[in-house]
TrEMBL record:
InterPro entries: Rieske_2Fe-2S (IPR017941), Rieske_2Fe-2S_sf (IPR036922), Rieske_Fe-S_prot (IPR014349), TAT_signal (IPR006311). Signal peptide: none annotated. It comes from the Archaea. Coiled coil: none annotated. The keyword Metal-binding applies. Keywords: 2Fe-2S, Disulfide bond, Iron, Iron-sulfur, Metal-binding. This is Cytochrome B. The lineage of its organism: Archaea, Methanobacteriati, Methanobacteriota, Stenosarchaea group, Halobacteria. Residues 195-279 form the Rieske domain. It comes from Halorubrum ezzemoulense DSM 17463. One of its GO terms (molecular function) is 2 iron, 2 sulfur cluster binding. The keyword Metal-binding applies.
Length: 279
C-alpha cells in the first residue's frame, strides 16, 4: 500500500489523496496551460497564473486534471450553499488587483480554481459578484428523484437527501452517494456555473480525520464544478450505463471523450488559471 492510500485496496473503501501530481506531469500541464493563456486571453486579463486547486481525481481519459471542488456548508435553514472566498487585494506583476482568496482548512482556497474553459470570462466568478451562493436545481436533471422533487431554480435542501445511504438508480452501486445536478452563483447572471452536489457516507467518514474535508464538506455533502478539464464538456455522475465500460459507474463520466473522475478521491492539482477579463 502506498503512502497516499488511506485504506487498503481490499477494504473496498475509496482513497482520499492529498499529494500533488508528479513533476513531469505538472511540467506538461504548465506548458500547455501557459500556451492557452497566451493565445486565448487578452493581454489585459487579471488574476490568472499558477494555481494549486483541490479537485476530484481524474481517473482516466484525456483530461489533464480533476474537476475543482466547491467547498460547501448547510445553512441554518437546511439549504446547501457553496463557500465563496473573501475578496482581497494583492499585488500581481506590480499591479494591485482584487482576487477571491482565503485560507480554509489549511489550504489557500481561490476563485482561480474555476478559471478555465472560458468560465473565467463569466461574471459569476468575478471576486465581487454578489450571490447568496445557494445551490439551485438545474433544469432537466437525469435523476428521477430530483425531477419529482424540484423545479429548475429551486434551492437544494438537506431533507431531500435523507436516503443518501441507500439511494441508487441502477447504475453502479447503491448507497455510494446521492447526487443533484445544480447551478451555483447563477442567479442574476447571464451564464450558469454548472455543479454537482453529492451527499455521501464516504465523504462523511473521510471528513472525520481530514482537515480540508472538515472545512470544505458538511454532513456528507460535497460539490464540484461540472466542466470537463479536457474540452469543456459537461460530465455526468451515475447517468449512463456506458460509464461502467470505463470503470466509472460510481464516478463522473464525460461521454464526449471518455474522461473519468472520482468524486470520492480528493487531490491537489497544479494548473495555469486563465486570467479574468480586465474590466
Amino acid at each position: 500500500m502506498s503512502a497516499s492510500d488511506k485504506y487498503p485496496s481490499e477494504s473496498g473503501r475509496r482513497r482520499f489523496v492529498k499529494g500533488v501530481v508528479g513533476g513531469a506531469a505538472l511540467a506538461g500541464v504548465g506548458a500547455m496551460g501557459s500556451a492557452t493563456v497566451n493565445t486565448l486571453t487578452t493581454a489585459g486579463g487579471v488574476g490568472g497564473g499558477s494555481t494549486i486547486a483541490k479537485t476530484i481525481a481524474q481517473t482516466g481519459g484525456p483530461a489533464p486534471r480533476g474537476l475543482p471542488q466547491i467547498p460547501v456548508q448547510v445553512n441554518d435553514d437546511g439549504y446547501i450553499e457553496g463557500i465563496w472566498p473573501e475578496t482581497t487585494t494583492i499585488t500581481q506583476e506590480g499591479q494591485e488587483i482584487e482576487v477571491a482568496q482565503e485560507e480554509l482548512g489549511g489550504t489557500t482556497y481561490s476563485g482561480a480554481w474555476f478559471q478555465y474553459c472560458g468560465v473565467e470570462s463569466q461574471e459569476n466568478v468575478q471576486p465581487n459578484f454578489e450571490s447568496d451562493n445557494l445551490f439551485r436545481a438545474a433544469s432537466g436533471p437525469p435523476y428521477d428523484w430530483q425531477s419529482n422533487t424540484y423545479s429548475g431554480g429551486d434551492r437544494i435542501h438537506i431533507d431531500d437527501f435523507d436516503d443518501y445511504e441507500e439511494w441508487g438508480n441502477g447504475i453502479g452501486s447503491d448507497g455510494v452517494g446521492k447526487p443533484a445536478m445544480t447551478t451555483w452563483r447563477s442567479e442574476d447572471s447571464d451564464t450558469n456555473l454548472n455543479a454537482i452536489v453529492i451527499r455521501s457516507p464516504e465523504i462523511e467518514e473521510a471528513a472525520q480525520n481530514d482537515e480540508w474535508l472538515q472545512a470544505s464538506t458538511d454532513q456528507g455533502f460535497m460539490a464540484y464544478l461540472n466542466v470537463c478539464t479536457h474540452f469543456c464538456c459537461i460530465p455526468g455522475y451515475k447517468e449512463l450505463e456506458e460509464s461502467a465500460r470505463y470503470d466509472a459507474a460510481d464516478g463522473s463520466y464525460c461521454v464526449c471523450h471518455q474522461s473519468t473522475y472520482d468524486p470520492f478521491t480528493i487531490e491537489e492539482a497544479l494548473f495555469i488559471a486563465r486570467p479574468r477579463p480586465d474590466e
